[in-house]
Amino acid sequence: MPSKEMYALGSQASVIRDLFAYGQEQAAVVGRENVFDFSIGNPTVPAPACVKEAIEEIVATRQSVDVHGYTAAAGDLAVRRGLADYMNQTYDAGVSADNFYMTCGAAASLTVTLKALVESPEDEVIVVAPFFPEYTVFIHNAGAKEVVLPPDTEHFQISLEAMEQAITPHTRAIIVNSPNNPAGTVYSADTYTKLAALLTKKSADIGHSIYLISDEPYREIIYDGLPILYVPKFYANTIICYSYSKSLSLPGERIGYILVPDCAADAKAVYTAVCGAGRAMGFVCAPHLFQDVVLKCMGKLSDMNIYDENRKLLYNGLKEMGYECVYPSGAFYLFVKSPEPDANAFSEKAKKLNLLIVPADSFGCPGYVRISYCVDPDMIRRSFAAFKTLIESYA
Amino acid sequence: MPSKEMYALGSQASVIRDLFAYGQEQAAVVGRENVFDFSIGNPTVPAPACVKEAIEEIVATRQSVDVHGYTAAAGDLAVRRGLADYMNQTYDAGVSADNFYMTCGAAASLTVTLKALVESPEDEVIVVAPFFPEYTVFIHNAGAKEVVLPPDTEHFQISLEAMEQAITPHTRAIIVNSPNNPAGTVYSADTYTKLAALLTKKSADIGHSIYLISDEPYREIIYDGLPILYVPKFYANTIICYSYSKSLSLPGERIGYILVPDCAADAKAVYTAVCGAGRAMGFVCAPHLFQDVVLKCMGKLSDMNIYDENRKLLYNGLKEMGYECVYPSGAFYLFVKSPEPDANAFSEKAKKLNLLIVPADSFGCPGYVRISYCVDPDMIRRSFAAFKTLIESYA
Description:
The structure is a homodimer of 395-residue chains.
Chain A: H1 4-11, H2 15-30, E1 36-37, H3 49-61, H4 64-68, H5 77-91, E2 100-103, H6 106-117, E3 124-128, H7 134-141, E4 145-149, H8 160-166, E5 171-176, H9 189-206, E6 211-215, E7 238-243, E8 256-259, H10 267-280, H11 288-296, H12 304-321, E9 325-326, E10 333-337, H13 343-352, E11 355-356, E12 358-359, E13 368-372, H14 377-392
Parallel strand pairs in A: 1-11, 3-4, 3-5, 5-6, 6-7
Antiparallel strand pairs in A: 2-8, 7-8, 9-10, 10-13, 12-13
């Protein structure tokens, strides 16, 4: 028999994937137009035109061996230089090529960073509810313990009192994710300022640096003209994990990066450990063609207006019906309070109306559901009758 | 400070990379044409034309979201079906789509397979010297102990007596690699037959199945009309790790697969654990565009004749000068016995003549050097004078 732990991970049912599969089945029964699948977070907006153009130009003009050969383990130097230039121009980041390690996407950015940082099985990594459930898997893979910070359901920022209590001498790192999956909220400058003060104080108390891992796959999906904050400016000891899955709609190509800025504690050593962790898990290098594609598309984005339109349509529509919705400032998720305490029961009732929405228990936030709006806007409109029937059943 | 273990892995000098870097520096001093770099195993033969055609056709005819979206974690179903058909037609493998898990290349195939199989820190994984040194890193990442089988320097097959002694109740798996890096040799049907008999007997003795992990990135680089052997036909309990890095010259694109045939012990459970291990390490899915590219290029190969020509040129040339060479039957490496017992000293002397060859100590085979011939044939010809000077210094 294989590893029990890996077998369990491989066989674990995912609420999201199960809902998605159910939706596919139901579509065959009641017609695709009568199933309202808000379960998954798969970008529906096409990649910007520069992606196709970049691919075509690269394969037309370069030698095969140059296009598809190995790059350095950390990524092609020209790509990392371009990335540093872009980050310096955009965020005044003060970084260079040597601060970047190109990865096979957001998940790899996290597993590599965590493995680089975790030293002992007593190490603790704090996650802030609501949070992406795969964090748990990645923290365990790195050999650390997960500590869950309860959600701040008033503002969906970070409860600093709870954070202060959660930090122990074993705290190694904290993962934050803004714009947030699943809450669709964005941390404010005030939140980062206060968090930084707390972490600086607690690092001194416990006698070692606490790393902030800023997981930013939704960085540019932010609305109402809110500024994008460069987190190391608030807390120096930050490592950024990024992915182009959402900003360039390239989730299947597995391309992203880890940024270890010089201001992070033991930055050079951490960067070296990142290289070691990537090596240990067999990443070798990030996919070469798409390293060059993101270089050519630096600063370009998929059309975020489409998500913004969906956001307004869904938020206003549901609010009018009487749903209690968390105001969505980023990402492409609407977080809605369940009209009954058990969000699973609520989701089951929704499912009977072919409305597929995800109870947030697995995100560490019971009593809420996640409604993903990276969907066809027509589906949102068609779904309103069912959403209305659903809320009226609680009247 | 980060993880000491990952820091060490990230900062470890690699003999091969150091030689390669030295060659780049020397080229600036003495001219590129006077440096004979046989250090690395980076394919120099272009990808077959179908790769470029496939990329162009896919991006021209499909919607961006379909080209670049997530696939199932195990890989796109159509790709796995195509792969199963190909393996059934070519090797009468009797496999289906459900036996394949698409990976980010050979290294990922190995790290995922090892993590899926290893249950306890007492588990042992046997490697057969000479072997690819990253196996050690991957085995440790999975949490197992490495056991090194000494090289059979007479035939470069597998010493069955040594294998019998190496197997203990803790033996979980054995990694074999044929065609072999670094020896350039190919295991015979006789070797597999005898190995299978031994493993079957020992599995019964120790009361659990011993998995054979067949690492096959060089599968199709095989000469003199030797047959490609489908290893599960010899030993049912085999898991195949494959990569398109060499066969399609796509090392930078990170695309390969794991095949868990139904005949392997607990095949369904192992496959599930493979899915779990991929998930734990953050692989998510293999790069989507290149999954579709390998489907369109199924059965196609880079021009292997170029390697074959290099092989004959180098082998005959060095043999004539008096070098003791292992006859190369596969891959693109010539394995040469050092004229003095210390291959490091020999390599250092070669380096003074700008001949960059890799001492095989790190491959578990002291006294030998690896000469990689995935190089420009003109460089081989130009290098002969230096090789002659070198061997004559031992006269």
